[in-house]
Write a structure and sequence with these properties.
By secondary structure, the chain is α/β, with parallel strands linked by helices. It has one domain: TIM Barrel (Alpha-Beta Barrel). It has 7 helices and 10 strands. An 8-stranded parallel beta barrel has the order 1-2-3-4-5-6-7-8. Strands 9-10 form a two-stranded antiparallel ribbon. β7, α6 and β8 form a beta-alpha-beta unit. α1 runs parallel beside α7. The longest helix is centred in the C-terminal third of the chain and has 15 residues. It is globular and about 40 Å long. It is an enzyme of class 5 (isomerase).
């Protein structure tokens, strides 16, 4: 099965449409104000309103209050929620939307145990660990830490770019890959050439 691609950190409609034209299955919108990729919910709603059908829109939160999450979901009408903080499974299921849970690959993490505690999620997303940073570090982690039994169901993130995504897909064989900084000209602003190069490498890996 071909590996799916999510482009995260969308802040402009033109970047969203470029990503979709290149082959993106999902777009991510960051609603975490300290992030350089933060987008105002009203702007995200405007972008989402011009998207074609069959593109999954994803809202990223970090330990946000439930009321704020509900307000943003109602405004943007996103399809999927992505939680990057210390949210409990009980917290994650309260919004009447499917969700994915990001797990940062901290040294000593019992990945199987952590993933099993979020059995209500659609998937877990694995990202690099950097103290004090909930995601978007631009760094990768050792992919051989992912148990073989989990690989076909995970979303792989962390430092992916055109130079390494084919290797990542060939080695891990994940369900999907998630990229943000690796296809940017600057934080929050995507680079069309980098996006197209990324998808060419994904296609090459999928065809191997």
């Amino acid at each position: 099965m071909a590996v799916r691609v999510k482009i995260c950190g969308i802040t402009r409609a033109e970047d969203a449409l470029t990503a979709i034209a290149a082959g993106a299955h999902s777009l991510g919108f960051v609603f975490y104000k300290p992030s350089p990729r933060y987008v105002e919910p009203s702007i995200a709603a405007d972008i989402i309103s011009v998207l074609p059908p069959f593109i999954t829109t994803t809202a990223l939160f970090v330990d946000e209050s439930p009321d704020v999450v509900k307000e943003i979901v109602a405004l943007t009408k996103v399809d999927l929620l992505q939680f990057h903080g210390k949210e409990s499974p009980e917290y994650c299921v309260q919004f009447e939307r499917p969700y994915i849970k990001a797990l940062r690959m901290k040294p000593g993490l019992d990945l199987v145990q952590q993933a099993s505690s979020y059995s209500s999620s659609r998937a877990v997303l694995l990202d690099a660990y950097k103290a004090g940073v909930p995601g978007g570090t631009g760094e990768s982690f050792e992919w051989n830490r992912i148990p073989q039994s989990m690989r076909s169901s995970i979303i792989l993130a962390g430092g992916l770019c055109a130079e390494n995504v084919a290797q990542a897909i060939e080695q891990v064989k994940p369900f999907a890959v998630d990229v943000s900084g690796g296809v940017e000209e600057s934080a929050g602003l995507k680079d069309a050439n980098k996006i197209n190069c990324f998808f060419k490498e994904v296609a090459r890996a999928n065809n191997n």
